[in-house]
Amino acid sequence: QDTFERVFVSPGLRGVPWYVMAGNHDHAGNVTAQLRYSHHSPRWHFPHPYYSLRLHIPGSNASARLLVLDTVLLCGHTDDFGLGDVPAGPRDAAAAGAHLAWLRAQLEAAAGDRFVLVAGHYPVWSVAKHGPTPCLLRLLRPLLRRHRVTAYLCGHDHNLQYLEEGGVGYVLSGAGNFMEDSRPHEGSVPPGSLRFFFGSPASPGGFAHLRLEPGGVTVTFLESTGRVLHRVTLPPR
């Protein structure tokens, strides 16, 4: 009630489906309860810790795919209270292996989709407090590049970032609660990959909006005031 039902109450949001993924703070609580909440709220969709959505692109016969990951299941938990804390490895290696096998199969099956978006909580690349996630650099980054994934969407760091590397767009949107403007890991990302960063603590926060059209995916970073902070269009695969 405090973080969802009584927050997103605007009339324009009432009929919008919310596709949920778990992050490290969710895993510190009760993810099973969040999965079961799908049966109580018509707009809360959390069918499995990781899942695939097939998206139809209006005005075309093209499709896109969104793969929602559980990066805590893949890489392990971190309380993230220290600078640069990284996940210590999966609690269940077999479950992590099954998740990775599922992801590989889904990416193969998405070969005909015009756009493929992959979403997880931990960042692959980040210049902010937590920095890049070594586990995802090892396991996920090669798959994103090999399968020409359009973009990887994440949170975890409390700011807005856009990076490009190896033909993949990296959209970090973690500015819904508070903002941090430090960039201690600026030297930990590939040179020239950071295209946009916003973390002003005085800002009321913001989010990333993605619009899928036949000719491209337009990523717009918005402040909650409605101010456009940055925009980029990613081409079809």
TrEMBL record:
This is PPA5 phosphatase. Residues 14-159 form the Calcineurin-like phosphoesterase domain. InterPro entries: Calcineurin-like_PHP, Metallo-depent_PP-like, Metallophosphoesterase_PAP. Keywords: Hydrolase, Signal. GO terms for molecular function: hydrolase activity. One of its GO terms (biological process) is bone resorption.
